[in-house]
Specification:
The structure holds two protein chains of two kinds.
Chain A: H1 3-6, E1 15-24, E2 40-49, H2 55-65, E3 75-79, E4 83-84, E5 89-98, E6 101-112, E7 115-116, E8 122-127, H3 128-136, E9 145-147, E10 153-154, H4 155-173, H5 176-198, H6 206-210, H7 214-233, H8 239-269
Antiparallel strand pairs in A: 1-2, 2-8, 3-5, 4-5, 5-6, 6-7, 6-8, 9-10
Helix pairs in contact in A: 5-7, 5-8, 7-8
Chain B: E1 2-10, H1 15-35, E2 39-50, E3 53-61, E4 68-76, H2 77-80, H3 88-97, E5 105-109, E6 112-121, H4 126-139, E7 161-168, E8 171-172, E9 176-177, E10 180-181, E11 185-187, E12 197-199, H5 206-212, H6 219-235, E13 241-242, H7 246-253, E14 260-265, H8 275-285, E15 288-292, E16 298-306, H9 312-340, E17 356-358, E18 362-363, H10 364-384, H11 391-400, H12 408-412, H13 419-427, H14 432-439, H15 455-474, H16 488-502, H17 508-518, H18 525-540, H19 545-553, H20 559-572, H21 576-594, H22 612-633, H23 637-645, H24 648-657, H25 665-681
The chains are: A alpha+beta, B alpha+beta.
């Protein structure tokens, strides 16, 4: 989860952003053999805070803008509530189904880093590979034409090797002991930053407070989250341990959310 | 009198929540109107819903509240009117009631005479009352999951509110909720009608106006249209039928405002995958209806319910898209199927150590160990009664039953747990008995579902559930009230149903003993199972509660035997003779309860029977008891109960002519012993004293 989303939604001030974001899910890797599953895919993220009253209609217009004539398609908003337990983030929303294909996750964020959000944000996540294969009408994500000039390049040409090699690493070769060790190290460094953040003197000026590296702490937290996913893909986490590790990373995310909120609270008052 | 229409416009409500919300809103509006004295006696309440709206229409709403006349009771008449003249107390009361002192009346109550005032409360205009109150009712709707959307989080609701339509006759009710004021405007289908508001002139125009804007708000009508369209679409495929699926019809009804149906196809090469997998992909993941041919075999077509209406060109596009998605899904399933075969179930047992069953109870590996112990005990008990079973296959099935939890296919399609294990066992040549038992371990899934077909499957199903219940009880996780997070009641219902329908010679007491043997702390298991048997007899089999009480108050035999006795008792309970016996047995129980002497062990001394009526009863009981006992042993319960009923004249004349509580201790003791033995000997099929004359 990009800091553009995780941290920005904590801020009470209006904010909107759109960006393309690679999303890595080690357990979803299929060695490049499955035409519909990817270890890494690309999301187009849109965050709107506060959500406009007609946010759904705006979303539908965005589909029209990329060439989908909704009068010739079947569209449904079906209940699907998004959640990222390691980051203490969740929301209420839908998966948007177009002709039976999920093309978007539409979420009204309710909590992030364990903090209640006010105002809330709408997050619209477009699955770019899926939408591209839909628009280009290809059966395999690897056949999507990713660039046309000067010569067409397919998604497979660009990404297949990565899918194969990372599946091999994630499932077979990642060194479990070292992954645990990395997790401990990143966690410890993140904790250290967070405890220093908690001890910042009250009289610190907003400018001095701004220098404190909350963003770096978040970076470390994301590394922990990814290591957790790697260990999970490697089959190294029993279901029992799982809950405990999620809780450990969540503690970091909550600490970061609190530190960031304190920082911006001073900013908006100062 | 006028018609009221309320429509709550929302962003898409989750399909699973709509039906309940629709009826709750109707209930709330009706209760509000009644509470506010706005309801005519002849009212019709109808409610509607689509994914984007909940609506209620009420015919027969008063435009003005009825005036209310209230009687206020004040101070005692004496205190208010000392010497017949109004005193300060009367003045104060009249002022408070807002009437002149001269209007006070004397009323007589059981407590004495009091001053009383009649006051008139004029009714208010309905629009005003409803404008103030309806918003609260909308806000009070209960939802399984709610959200905030407005800054400062003023309210939680299922999804953001987008519009309110509220009309009383042709007038807008000034209602406000979640920052939105009601108007006379609604909205049509997102795509087919677009964002243009539509004016609704009066409540009676609601359905027709929406229909013109491509919204069928009447849920029953929408369901009917879907069924008709499914039928029509199926007729284009010669010899085909769509697989009835009420839950899916319900779901798509609540996902659409303007439903149409599409016929799609998939490559027949996918038909080599098990039907269970194909149907699950279509039903659970794509909400498609499966199609079968004349032989009920799955055909390579599907039906999708769309929320739009398009011409042939659009239909081709939508069909193409849906077929593409299904192909991808089937490809996934085939990928998982082939991938999973690389590690046979037998090599997955060890992996269960990493799959948690329950936090305090450890992994599925230890769960499997408990299941094995339980299954061996059950198998031995069943075999001892002469039921043939394959012990080795049973143990193999129990050992492998949970291994499919480690497969990719079950991780992807969790609802196929058990079924996938069974299919893999078959594919891996583990034998039909093992495969069948694993496949059917979660049957019955509910009261309608059937039980496992084989003895081994039945025992696996019993062992799994019984071990779970015993282990949960042993660590204090028994269900309480409405809380049953581990669905233990459902598990116990499954046990009772398997026992009832398999005819396995196992009593609940035997099951309890097996549970307690390994887990002595699971003490309440016996009572719990008995409660579920009670539930089964009443709710599933439909026996009257007194019949069930009568059957369960006697010693517990097997579940099938309890069913047979309940059936027999239901058949004969209406007879006068049996009702008379029931009354007599109640009387016997009362006498015995009140009698000071303990009857334990006392036997009847025939020489002390002095009265003819008691000698007669004694002789009759001696004569009939062995006959009844023989019939009971042959499970001829109707005949046995009818024979018990023949005791009526002897019992009646005994109570008419003999005084049980005679002053002479030896006579008294003897008579008590006589009635105690009658009660004992003839209450073995059912406790007649529980029967309530209907």
């Amino acid at each position: 989860m990009s800091p553009e989303t995780f941290l920005r939604v904590l801020d009470p001030r209006p904010f909107s952003v759109a960006y393309a974001q690679p999303s890595r899910r080690p357990a979803d890797g299929r060695y490049g053999e499955n035409p519909n599953r990817l270890f890494k895919h690309t999301q187009f993220q849109v965050v709107l805070k506060p959500p406009p009253v007609n946010v759904q209609e705006i979303y539908l217009e965005s589909l029209a803008a990329i060439g989908i004539d909704l009068r010739q398609h079947d569209l449904k908003f079906e209940e699907d509530n998004w959640e990222a337990p390691t980051l203490g983030a969740w929301g209420i929303g839908w998966q948007v189904m177009l002709d039976g294909q999920e093309i978007t996750q539409f979420t009204y964020f309710q909590q992030c880093g364990g903090l209640d959000l006010d105002p809330i944000s709408a997050e619209i996540t477009y699955g770019l590979e899926r939408i591209a294969s839909f628009l280009q009408d290809v059966d395999s994500l690897y056949d999507v034409v990713w660039a046309r000039t000067p010569n067409p390049v397919t998604y497979g040409e660009v990404r297949h090797l990565e899918e194969v090699q990372f599946s091999v690493y994630n499932f077979e070769q990642a060194d479990v002991e070292k992954l645990w060790e990395h997790l401990r190290l990143y966690e410890a460094e993140c904790q250290q930053l967070l405890s220093r953040a908690a001890q910042l003197p009250e009289e610190l000026s907003p400018a001095e407070r701004r220098r404190f590296p909350v963003l770096a702490a978040y970076d470390l937290c994301l590394k922990c989250s990814h290591l957790f996913n790697l260990l999970d893909a490697r089959g190294a986490i029993s279901v029992t341990e799982r809950v405990g590790i999620i809780a450990r990373i969540r503690v970091l995310a909550v600490g970061i959310a609190k530190a960031y909120s304190r920082m911006i609270a001073r900013e908006s008052h100062g | 009198m006028a018609e009221l229409l309320l429509e709550v416009g929302l962003e898409e409500i989750p399909a699973r929540m709509i039906a309940d919300a629709q009826s709750e809103l109707a209930r709330r509006v009706e209760a509000l109107l009644a509470r506010q004295r706005l309801l005519e006696s002849a009212t019709t309440i109808t409610s509607y819903s689509t994914p984007r709206r909940l609506a209620v229409r009420v015919q027969g709403v008063l435009t003005q509240q009825l005036d209310l006349q209230e009687e206020l009771t004040g101070p005692s008449w004496k205190a208010a009117f000392p010497e017949g003249q109004p005193g300060p107390a009367a003045q104060a009361f009249a002022k408070k009631a807002g009437v002149p002192v001269t209007a006070l009346k004397k009323i007589t109550t059981p407590k004495g005479e009091y001053a009383s005032a009649t006051i008139q409360r004029p009714g208010q205009r309905a629009e005003k009352v409803l404008g103030e109150e309806l918003g609260k009712e909308i806000g009070a709707l209960s939802w399984p999951k709610t959200m905030y959307w407005r800054p400062n989080k003023p309210e939680r609701f299922v999804r953001p509110l987008r519009w309110l339509l509220c009309l009383l006759g042709e007038n807008v009710v000034p209602l406000e909720f979640a920052g939105i004021r009601a108007a006379n405007v609604s909205y049509g289908h997102r795509i087919l009608h677009g964002d243009r508001p539509i004016a609704i002139g009066r409540p009676a125009d609601y359905l027709a106006t929406l229909e013109a804007a491509f919204v069928v708000a009447d849920v029953g009508l929408r369901r009917h249209r879907i069924r008709t369209a499914l039928d029509a679409a199926t007729r284009t495929l010669p010899g085909a039928r769509w697989r009835e699926d009420e839950a899916l019809v319900e779901q798509v009804t609540h996902l659409t405002e303007w439903p149409t149906v599409l016929v799609g196809n998939f490559q027949s090469e996918f038909l080599v995958l098990p039907e269970e997998v194909l149907v699950t992909v279509m039903r659970d993941h794509q909400k498609y209806f499966a199609i079968e041919d004349k032989q009920h075999a799955l055909a390579s077509h599907f039906l999708a319910v769309l929320n739009t209406e398009v011409g042939p060109e659009g239909m081709a596009i939508i069909r193409h898209g849906n077929e593409r998605v299904l192909r991808a899904r089937f490809n996934d399933a085939r990928f998982f199927w082939n991938y999973d075969q690389k590690l046979p179930l037998e090599q997955r047992v060890e992996k269960l150590k990493t799959v948690t069953f329950q936090r305090d109870l450890g992994s599925y590996y230890s769960k499997t160990e408990s299941n094995l112990l339980m299954a061996k005990a059950l198998g031995a008990a069943v075999a001892a009664q002469g039921i043939p079973l394959d012990h080795a296959a049973l143990e193999r099935a129990v050992l492998l039953a949970k291994t499919d939890l480690t497969t990719e296919l079950v991780k992807e399609f969790t609802e196929l747990q058990g079924i996938v294990g069974g299919l893999y066992a078959r594919a891996q040549g583990l034998g039909e008995i093992v495969a069948q038992a694993i496949y059917s371990q979660y049957m019955p899934a509910g009261v309608e579902d059937s039980i496992p077909a084989t003895v081994e499957g039945q025992i696996l199903g019993l062992a799994d559930r019984l071990a779970t219940i015993a282990e949960m009880f042993a660590i204090g996780l028994e269900p309480s009230g409405s809380k049953d997070p581990f669905a233990l009641r459902r598990a116990a219902n499954g046990i009772v149903k398997i026992l009832a329908e398999s005819g396995l010679p196992l009593t609940l007491a035997a099951l309890e003993a097996m549970a307690l043997k390994s887990l002595p702390r699971a003490g309440a298991v016996g009572t719990f199972l008995k409660e579920r048997l009670d539930f089964y007899l009443r709710e599933v089999r439909g026996y009257a509660y007194d019949v069930v009480n009568a059957v369960l108050s006697t010693g517990l035999t097997t579940v099938t035997d309890a069913v047979a006795r309940a059936q027999a008792l239901t058949q004969v309970r209406g007879s006068d003779d049996l009702l008379a016996i029931s009354t007599a047995f109640k009387r016997i129980k009362n006498i015995l309860r009140q009698a000071e002497e303990k009857q334990d062990g006392d036997s009847v001394a025939s020489e002390s029977l002095t009265e003819p009526a008691e000698r007669h009863l004694y002789a009759e009981a001696l004569r009939v008891a062995p006959q009844v006992e023989a019939m009971r042993a042959r499970q001829e319960y109707v005949e046995a109960l009818e024979r018990v009923a023949t005791l009526r004249p002897a019992i009646d004349s005994f109570f008419d002519q003999v005084m049980v509580m005679a002053p002479e201790p030896h006579l008294r003791r003897n008579r008590l012993a006589l009635i105690a033995s009658v009660l004992n000997d003839f209450s073995r099929i059912a406790d007649f004293s529980e029967i309530v004359p209907g």
